[in-house]
Amino acid sequence: MGSAKNQSNAARKARIEEMRRAERARERRNRILTIVASSVVVAGLVVGGVFVVQSQADKAEASDAKDKDDKVKTAGKLVADKDGLKTWKGTLGRTHVTEPVKYPVEPPVGGDHDRVWMNCNGDVYTKAVNNMNAVHSLEHGAVWVTYNSKAPKADVEALAAKVKQTPYTLMSPDDGQQDPIVLSAWGVQRTVTGAKDPNVGKFFETYVQGKQTPEPGAACTGGMSE
């Protein structure tokens, strides 16, 4: 009787010990799986972080390289042909700068400029804009309509309506220019007599995203809005 009881206790202890060993084995497996999973996550974060940092560095390097390549000194002048169209003869800088730029003509037709462009998706500004931002818009292929206080109100309103309907254009007052109404694109400029001047339509058709554009298709939104 005692022997049978001892055997039963021994068997029970053996089962309990076996269950404990199995539980310890499961715990070890779970710890190993947790460590492995954590390592994978950490490695992924590290790799992802390295990729993001490298990507940002590559973009910065590319931007710096572009600025370096674009460091061409502006030189030359606007020359008018017999039809009155003025074309820049010489070179126009395209470097992004922070210090003020003194342009050789008003309004300017190109040159070094700010990193941020003026929005030019048919934007009409009632106040003068920064030339450095507007020149960046010209680089993107925009036509810039400017006028001074001598421009007739009816012409200003008609030109504003045309600009609002035309992507890659902008309009703003410029009391520093000599002629009442001027149309400018990168490297070209024309004075027009008014909104009904046929040269307005010709200029838009030729130079809105025209062949003169240094960066065709570049954005005309997401820039300065005032």
Can you walk me through this structure?
InterPro entries: DUF3105. The chain crosses the membrane at residues 32-53. This is DUF3105 domain-containing protein. Keywords: Membrane, Transmembrane, Transmembrane helix. Pfam families: DUF3105. Strands 1-2-7-6-4-5-3 form a seven-stranded mixed β-sheet. It is built from four helices and seven strands. It has two domains: 1-69; 70-207, 3-Layer(aba) Sandwich (Glutaredoxin). The N and C termini lie far apart (102 Å). Helices cover 44% and strands 15% of the residues. The chain has helices at 2-69, 131-139, 153-164, 198-207; strands spanning 75-80, 86-91, 121-124, 143-147, 169-173, 181-185, 188-191. It is elongated. With 226 residues, the chain is α/β, with parallel strands linked by helices. A hairpin with a 2-residue loop joins strand 6 (181-185) and strand 7. The model is unreliable at 46-69 (pLDDT under 50).
The dominant shape is elongated
What is the number of independent domains?
Answer: 2
Mean pLDDT: 83
Task: State the CATH class of the largest domain.
Answer: Alpha Beta
- Overall helicity: 40-55%
Q: Strand order of the main beta sheet, please? A: 1-2-7-6-4-5-3
Structure summary, number of beta strands: 7
The largest sheet, given as strand count, sense and whether it forms a barrel, is: 7 strands, mixed
Provide the low-confidence segments as ranges: 46-69
Order of helices and strands: HEEEHEHEEEH
- Radius of gyration, rounded? 35 Å
CATH topology of the largest domain: Glutaredoxin
Strand content: 15-25%
Distance between the termini: 102 Å
CATH-derived architecture of the largest domain: 3-Layer(aba) Sandwich
Compute the number of helices.
4
